[in-house]
Amino acid sequence: MGFQLTPVVKNLLLINVVLFGFDYLLGDSWLTRGILANILGLRYLLADTFHIYQFVTYMFVHADFSHLFFNMFGLLIFGPMLERFWGAKRFLIFYMVTGIGAGLLYSGVNFYETYRFEQQAIEYSRNPNPTDFRIILQNNRDLFRGVALEATDQYEAHADNVPLRQQTVRLVMEALARKENTPMIGASGAIFGILIAFGLLFPNTQLFLLFPPIPIKAKYIVLFYGVTALFGAIQNVPGDNVAHYAHLGGMLFGWIMVSFWKQDRDRFY
Predict the structure, then answer these.
(1) DSSP-derived secondary structure for 113-139
(2) SS3 for 215?
(3) Helices 88-126, 7-26: crossing angle, 10 deg rounding
(4) How far is CA 192 from the centre of its chain?
(5) Sorting pLDDT into bands at 50, 70 and 90, what band is 2?
(6) What would the pLDDT profile of 196-212 be if each residue is shown by its tens digit?
(7) Delimiting residues of CATH 1.20.1540.10 domain(s) in the chain
(8) Which of 46, 89, 108, 257 is most buried (most C-beta within 10 Å)?
(9) pTM more than 0.90
(10) Pick the CATH number of 7-110+186-260 from 1.20.1540.10, 3.30.70.2470, 3.10.310.20, 2.40.50.140
(11) How far apart are CA 163 and CA 253, in angstroms?
């Protein structure tokens, strides 16, 4: 496989890099997302900051340099061969549809999780108590920054302490605000769509990876990433800020589109 750039891949790379650079100029650090990512990122569907255009714009902004690098590296490795196979127009359609599809699946799951937590937070604010606070904290560890489970022991020992009770309500509502206002960004959904398309169309193409340093067929790499995304989504590990459902959404829509566009031959080498 060569690294010769094709027109759409080149333009996608350029757009992502330019927007990241512009975001750096607006932000505080080259390592973290700035103002632009917060505007164009995909928000919770019921948030005041949600706009329909974010289903497109979110995939062109990134959280940090490593986020940008690995997504663009995947586009550079797998994109040109697909663009040469499909043509520029069809490849661009595929990229946009899988990216939007990834955003749709992510938004559906995020809506369910956020709305449920919103109802829990409202109910807790009306009737704060140590038992419910412990349950909320245990089930949403990633939202309570710096709050240890040991804090519930203190609350249980002083359940009638009004300032302490008010503090727990404030912590829960702050966690809800973080969940509602954290945007999802990055081209990962579209990249995972490209990955599964490559694996379906060129399953026996040998890819040489650095880790492990042996050639591996494309279909096995796709299977590995698919299982990893599924495992990450199911496990929901605290502190994991990867949008696994967006990855799964990209792969799902990618599989649908490849099946829809299926050619006379089932496999290409």
Answers:
(1) HHHHHHHHHHHHHHS--HHHHHHHHHH
(2) strand
(3) 40
(4) 11
(5) very low
(6) 999 999 888 877 765 66
(7) 7-110+186-260
(8) 257
(9) no
(10) 1.20.1540.10
(11) 50
Nearest to 82 by CA among 268, 253, 249, 231: 268
**Measured between alpha carbons, how far is residue 190 from residues 13, 29, 125, 138 in Å?**
13, 26, 40, 33
CA 239-54-38 angle, 5° bins = 50
Q: What count of other Cβ atoms lies within 10 Å of the Cβ of residue 238?
A: 12
Q: Using CA atoms, how far apart are residues 168 and 151, in angstroms rounded to an integer? A: 9
User: What length is written for the chain?
Assistant: 269
User: What amino acid occupies position 165?
Assistant: R
End-to-end CA distance of the chain: 11
Reading the block at residue 161, the tokens are 């302490």
User: What 8-state DSSP symbol labels residue 184?
Assistant: B
Check pLDDT > 60 for residue 186.
Answer: yes
- Per-residue pLDDT tens over the stretch 94-107: 999 999 999 999 99
Please confirm whether the linkage preceding 212 is cis (ω < 30° from 0): yes
